[in-house]
Amino acid sequence: MKAIFGLGNPGRKYSKTRHNVGFMVVSSLGEEMGISIKKSKFNAKIGTGKIGGIEREKRDNGDGGVRGGMGDETLLLVLPQTYMNRSGYCVSAVLDFYRLSPEDIIVVTDDIDLDFGRIRIRPRGGSGGHRGMKSIIEELNKSDFIRLRIGVGRGENEDPADFVLSRFSSSESLQLEEIIERAKESLFSILHDGVDIAMNRFNE
Description:
This protein has helices spanning 21-33, 87-98, 131-140, 160-163, 170-193, 195-202; strands spanning 2-6, 39-41, 44-50, 74-80, 105-111, 119-122, 146-151. With 204 residues, the chain is an alpha/beta fold.
């Protein structure tokens, strides 16, 4: 089993904010795979499917050939409902219940230190000041898990805490669908090709 966690804050108030881009990506992935992320468990919304569900004709390896991979392996999609700075409680509970290790998970989150729309994949690392990542690292007492960071930019002369809770501008919103699609492609690559190949393809 592999698990993908999309970080964000629950509730309509935060649904379209920069801090919730992790929610957006994983929710879109669930829609594409036909996975309903509605079951309430571990202070989260959860859905399960098979990794083979992402092996569609249009998902190829970049040269026209369809990827092989882990079609029979279970994929768990998780949207923590604990609010961002307590994300680690949910992640820890999921790993304990399913007997997963940190190496079995991918965490999708926003990053104000990356330019808007940029994608960065890393197999391990620190929190970078991100409270959700900080909570996960503290609860797991490990930082060896894959993270997909999506750049949301940084506001000029604006407090970072306020900026991440702001909504995307009109021009950014027009680009958001394409960014989410690219983020999903990078997740497909991680699952099927491995993190090293995915980093080479998608890190900018």
